[in-house]
Amino acid sequence: MNWLKQNYNLKLISLLAIVVYGAAFALSIYINQTEDKLLIHDVSRLFPDRVYEIVEGEEEAALVEAVKAAKENNLKISIGGARHSQGGHAFYQDSVFLDMSNYNKILKLDEKEKTIKVQSGVTWEQIQDYINPHGLAIKVMQSSNVFTVGGSLSSNVHGRDPQYGPLIETVKSFRLLKADGNVINVSRNENEELFELVIGGYGLFGVILDVTLELTDNEIYVSQTEKINYKDYPEYIIKQIANNDDVGLHFARLAATPDDLLNDMYMTTYRTIDKGDDRYPTNEDDYEELVELNEEQNVLRDKFFFGLSRKYDWAKNLVWDLQQKLYAEKEEGEVVSRNNAMRPPIEFLEYDSDKDTDILQEYFIPVDHFEEFVDGLRKIVKEDDLNLMNVTVRYTPKHNEGYLTYAKEDTLALVLLFNHELSDEGIAHMKLSTQKIVNQALELNGRYYLTYQLFPSQDQIRKAYPKIESFFKRKLEYDPNERFMNNFYERYAK
Amino acid sequence: MLKWIVISQSLLLFGTGLVFPFYIIFLSEVGGNFSEFGIAYGIFTISSALVHHWVGRRSDKVGRKSFLLINTWGSALIYLTFPIITSIGQVYIIQVLLGILGAMQKTSEKAIVADFTDGESRGKKIGSYHFWVSLFSGFAVIVGGFLIDLLTVDIIFYFGSIILFVSGWFILFINESRDVN
């Protein structure tokens, strides 16, 4: 009898425990999955903001509706794509956040004209997948293909093809959803002022709906990696790379290792080869294999090594040496299609520690002042004990279009990847060091890229971009209620 | 019959070992600075101290088993809140609860091990008991580190919670009456 009673109690307790625990478990998972959806941040996870509402517009009508509703309810609007800008350009506290990543249809490919019309949430990867079978390639995009077209336009990015300046050069036209809810065409002939304001305008003038971009041929390249003294690099660029028709893509790397900090330099050049060349694929099968798009490989391996070099100096040296060995092996030259050369790995860079973060910065330095800048940068990195992890250099020829253009003359663009602590002290330290680097760039007539952190001072942004004041004025003319809002505008326009 | 105690407590220590060292890192991040971290940890120990007396007395009357069970399943539930914590205030509350549960476990564990052992071979048995329990805890810490590196911190909280929940069932098998006889 007693045993039976005990058995009954045991069953009751068991049942109760399972029910209560199961419910608590499900609740925890549910809250964990949903709670922070309104907390919007960029890839660096610095300075997140809670937005009022997220609108994922798949249809144009939904986006128009969202803008009109925001106007009626007097709410601000922020617009985000892949969210790789790192200064809160893509979001704003308590705003209606338009997540454009689902507005991603490819609308029309014109093979004859070599143009493509896409919705602004389309990523470069989607475009590559779509146009590769047609033997076409993108003219200008970032070094990686994960970004959306709309976001890239808004920050007027540049790429690795030394024939082209910023992205604006390859944009034919786009449609813009304005603050009043109306949609207009924008091109070099129609609403032409907005053409230069919106591209590189960080979403402050409206929502970019669809974009027509110029394309080029998916050429076959042979790559070559060589070592060079960084002091000789400017001369090499002018003589061998700039205005040289057979150069398809070009970039260089400066060592971020403690041993050779900003001293060792390797550069990779992709040169076009034609059908006559003996390295050009001889039959259809070889050609098909060559142009087939590559997927990123060895993500975990690269992530591991990159993780090590984030933490340890010895690993930085090791990885750099390994990289150079790999490049040296390829010295003979790898034959690769333009599309494949324009989708280098990036996934291994994804990093989500709660304690520290990887941030990017970019500086545009007039070609002649490259050496001075590198020397100054080296001094700052050493003195301030910055964890510099990677430095790439690309050539950006002069291009005058764009209200806030950074390429007023031929420049070398240095992209710096830093790792720093997420603590208040860590951020303050990085801010101070950034201002020093910006000063260094300004002294040499260079500029910093606006797409990254809001660390530079009011004074510095005005020196780097003298037209910023009138840019903000134009913003108020087109959007008097400041409907389109982001942290970048708030920091510098007020 | 130390068997079920060893199994349940080893599993318990595996679950807590999985979570606890990393929970402390997690805490220092939510807290932001060392003083808040210190307060959080102090609260845990002090709240523990305040209930040790009571737990000891009560367990003499109603048995140790229920306290071990409350600690195990209670902790399993609390671990579920770790992934959704957002402020230091919530951490303080959790530390109080964990402190109380910890006191239930510590006092009852010592008492029940004492109940199940006697005279001459007591030291030997307690040594063996701690061998198993520490071994599991050690492995758990190593496994926990790998799990976080490969997955996310949230995963170990959920994983640890499930292990704790399971270890509770083994406590149910402990038969205290045998000792009373």
From TrEMBL, chain A:
Answer yes or no on keyword Metal-binding.
Answer: no
Source domain of life is Bacteria
Keywords, alphabetical:
FAD, Flavoprotein, Membrane, Oxidoreductase, Transmembrane, Transmembrane helix
**Membrane spanning stretches:** 12-31
Keyword Transmembrane helix attributed: yes
Q: Which InterPro entries match?
A: ALO_C, FAD-bd_PCMH, FAD-bd_PCMH-like_sf, FAD-bd_PCMH_sub2, FAD-linked_Oxase-like_C, FAD_lactone_oxidase-like, Oxid_FAD_bind_N
The entry lists its GO molecular-function terms as: D-arabinono-1,4-lactone oxidase activity; FAD binding
- A Pfam family (short name) is ALO
Q: List the GO terms this entry assigns under cellular component, sorted alphabetically.
A: membrane
Boundaries of each FAD-binding PCMH-type domain copy?
44-218
User: This chain belongs to which protein, by name?
Assistant: FAD-binding oxidoreductase
Q: Which organism is it from?
A: Filobacillus milosensis
